[in-house]
Design goal:
about 260 residues, mainly alpha, 2 domains, 9 helices, elongated
Length: about 260
């Protein structure tokens, strides 16, 4: 039987996949197929997961985090672009200044805007600390006249971190199962359901079991191929220096992958 690559599915993909499986099962005579109990078990955990997913999607702070992350990404990429262009400045002093800052920036990695939320905050904070304490880098900022860009990136990164901590506080005040835990629970119940279908199909007591098994296999193959295509595209994009993020929607608040 085709195995879903759950570890690669984004939260939204995982949720939709199990919903689609349920729809395929419910299209048949569940009682006659002796699938009522495993179907009901999966439906229960999917309903829980769907409710949590909708709550997270509707969180105002979560949307604010997405906007603030976009703000700091623009500041970071704008600053990096200025440094790259100033490497070719007609004044040698500005060339050297740009190269010094760009060397420091690149030492933290070439995909900073695509790191998960917490990692990006920490990396930008460390980089800006270097720029404000190391004399050569501080002088380079002055030489290039980019203090306003540095100020904007600093403010954007701090604003993001402040709201991120507010989101953590909100989650702590409303304890519930994490989406990751619910995924694990749903995956286990899903396997119980498909094991029942496969067992009945092997016994050959009802031809519909094999039909249903074929449909689930086809659905699984479709989802797996979609995920593989995305991973390939991500890898190709990274190779051409336009970085993309490894799916991180299991993070506490990162929802860009949904």
């Amino acid at each position: 039987m085709e195995t879903p690559n759950f570890s690669r599915y984004r939260n939204s993909e995982f949720l939709q996949y199990v919903k689609d499986v349920l729809e395929l099962v419910n299209a048949q005579d569940v009682v006659n197929l002796q699938l009522t109990t495993p179907r009901d078990n999966l439906q229960a955990v999917v309903d829980q997961m769907d409710n949590l997913f909708q709550q997270e999607q509707s969180s105002g702070i979560t949307q604010e985090l997405i906007d603030l992350d976009e703000r700091r990404d623009k500041a970071f990429m704008g600053l990096k672009g200025l440094l790259e262009s100033h490497q070719h400045h007609y004044e040698e002093a500005k060339q050297l200044a740009a190269r010094s800052l760009l060397y420091n920036l690149n030492s933290f990695g070439d995909n900073i805007p695509r790191l998960n939320y917490q990692a990006e905050t920490a990396v930008i904070d460390s980089m800006l600390a270097d720029w404000s304490t190391e004399s050569i880098l501080t002088a380079a900022v002055t030489t290039l006249g980019i203090a306003d860009w540095v100020t904007e990136l600093t403010a954007a990164n701090q604003a993001f971190n402040d709201r991120f901590l507010a989101r953590i506080s909100e989650s702590a005040a409303n304890p519930a199962l994490s989406f990751t835990t619910m995924r694990d629970n749903s995956a286990a119940v899903y396997r119980q359901l498909t094991a029942h279908i496969q067992a009945h199909a092997t016994l050959g007591t009802n031809a519909v079991h094999q039909t249903l098994l074929n449909e689930v296999n086809e659905l699984t193959n479709h989802y797996n191929q979609t995920v593989y295509a995305r991973i390939r595209n991500t890898s190709n994009t990274t190779d051409t220096s336009i970085n993309d993020e490894v799916p991180t929607d299991d993070d506490v608040v990162n929802t860009e992958n949904v």
